[in-house]
Amino acid sequence: MGLVEFIEGPAFWFALAVFVAGALWRFVGIIRIGHKPDLAPPKGSAGWGWIRGNLRHFFPRGLFAERTWMHVLGGYAFHLGLFAVMFFAAPHVDFIRERLIGVGWPALPRWGFIIAAEIAFAGLIVLWVRRFSDPVMRLISDWDDHVGSWLTFLVMLTGCLALERAHVSLRALHMGLVELWLIYFPFSRLMHAFTFMLSRGATGASYGRKGMTL
Amino acid sequence: MSETADTVIRTMLDQTDGDIAAYLEACVHCGECAEACHFYLATQDPKYTPTYKLMPLVKAYKRHKAPLRSVKGMLGLLPAEVSEEELREWESLVYDSCTMCGRCTLVCPMGLDIAGTIRKMREGYSAAGIVPDGLRTARENVVKTGSPMGVTAKALKAQIARQEKETGLEIPLDKQGAEYLALFSSMEVMGYPEVIGAYARIFARAGIDWTISTEAYEATNIGVQIGDGPLARKLVARIVDAARKLGVRHVISPECGHAYGAIRWAGPNMLGETFPFEVIHIIELLDRLRAEGRLEIGEKDARRITLHDPCQIVRRGGLLKEPRRLLDDACADFVEMKGSGVTNLCCGGGGGVSANPRAEELKTQAFSCKKAQLDAIDGLKAVVVPCANCRGVFEDGLDALGGDYEVIGLSELVADTLKD
Ligand code: SF4
Ligand code: SF4
What we know:
The complex is a heterodimer. Chain A is mostly helical. Among the domains of chain A are: 64-141; 144-209. Chain A has helices at residues 3-8, 10-33, 46-56, 62-88, 90-101, 110-133, 135-140, 143-161, 168-184, 192-209. In chain A, helix 3 (46-56) packs across helix 10 and helix 4 crosses helix 5 (90-101). The mean pLDDT of chain A is 93. By secondary structure, chain B is an alpha/beta fold. The radius of gyration of chain B is 22 Å and the shape is globular. Chain B has 3 domains: 3-130, Fumarate Reductase Iron-sulfur Protein, Chain B, domain 2 (Orthogonal Bundle), CATH 1.10.1060; 134-289, no CATH class; 295-416, Rossmann fold, CATH 3.40.50. In chain B, the strands form 2 sheets. Chain B has a 4-stranded parallel beta sheet. Chain B has a 4-stranded parallel beta sheet with strand order 6-5-7-8, with helices on both faces. The chains are: A mainly alpha, B alpha/beta. The interface between A and B is large, with 61 and 60 residues. One iron/sulfur cluster is lined by residues 36-37, 39, 50, 53, 98-104, 114-115, 346 of chain B. Residues 36-37, 39, 50, 53, 98-104, 114-115, 346 of chain B line the site of one iron/sulfur cluster.
């Protein structure tokens, strides 16, 4: 088996297995820590609060956005762009259909991919520059933040380079980086893609019990 | 690891339930929270970034409690053990620069409850005896007299006698079988005793059968502010025992945000039981009486008046509309501050900060944000501050920074505008 076959075959399945098992382990592990039942008589529903908390924090509050608009725009651009290229780039849709689940969905046209990728890059760069230049961000950032950003950037970059699917080595490079990213994911802050639900939900449930609509 | 560090870390981690774990796991280090914290806004010092205040707990959690820590440990990816030196360095961030106001939660894309997490950290610090001097003194006062300001039952009775004289109304003490038991904060009893008179006037008008207990009159829970769990439980238990003994059906929390949170939301969980009485905030009760038509307002206060939303009553307590309905009735020219309601700015002195002399200067700096909000309202004459602690912070802050606004309590305003 050549290197390319290895990267596109066993290495991918191994990375995917680490990703799924690690992310599940961590996610369930947090839930399993558990918490005591709340005995204070509620004024509203914790369940609705959980859902509302999760939805509400997708949107910034106007008052704060006045101060943080740059970051908010960067955050939206990066996440929406990344979501679009991750799940709607034609090679990804094909890959998911052929190698993973057997079903696919309409993919972005080439121009759509390019716009989405540009938006994602622009957002990532804004967030990145801020991480280096803002005194608050410099103080609170650690190596995990930087490794996560670099890995994601390289995955995106090689993905664009491999878009033509003609150059096998470029595609393999992209796949290799994706595998690294998948393996790194459950052990890192990239897990926020799943843990956000728990954190927003916990706050939302507590507010919900107090009868607050946020 | 030193014994002190071990105690802090062990207690903090014991307090870390699934919700706190989710917060510690989900932070993406985006720094948004700094923009919501009055300590950062006033000083622009990055160390006041809310998530940064949690760092020792984050490190300890990752090392000792987080899922997948053993795999990370094998790869050498765990953070170093938190040292006593580091914990002591963080003490002022944990006690002086967090009023547990919860504003940062609103801006945080992950919805982290920093305030609740800081409270868990304080439990650890308190267990190891690392507590600022001002709060230590308040704790000693509570142990001796039951009140953080050392207000004894004798002092309370003297204040009540004065209010009886002023209002010409009897204020029932230890009345068996009364329907409502009213609690106060030390600050109200000693600093704003007219609140007691205001209750007497309102309750007489509304026909409320109430009493004050000489065994449990203090609602402030210094145990919650310091993070001293056993003391917090003891203080809640004292109120519950007195309420049971008198057979009341409702306990009225005073205009004090932390007291409300402690008895209404945290209290039952501390004692492990649902109380056999309703805990109702005085603002909730006044609003209920208003809705029932039992508070007839006479001449409205004509001054331009605004409202400060105490964090623990509004953002963390859920009482948003109630004070506004009361003010609409009582004031002819009520105006909102910018960002009022759930996104209000803290006064800068909650969460035990105002009882901590070391934090005095920082507290005043933080109050400057609040003062800017007041100054932005044209022709403002007075600000209603329905929390005795915030009220003290406002008075000190306006004293230090200048500002000619009268600071009034909500119950007094309602009592003053009742129809003759
Ligand atoms: S709870 Fe309030 S004081 Fe504490 S860090 Fe958050 S915004 Fe700052
Ligand atoms: S806003 Fe929330 S996610 Fe961002 S750094 Fe602060 S606590 Fe962490």
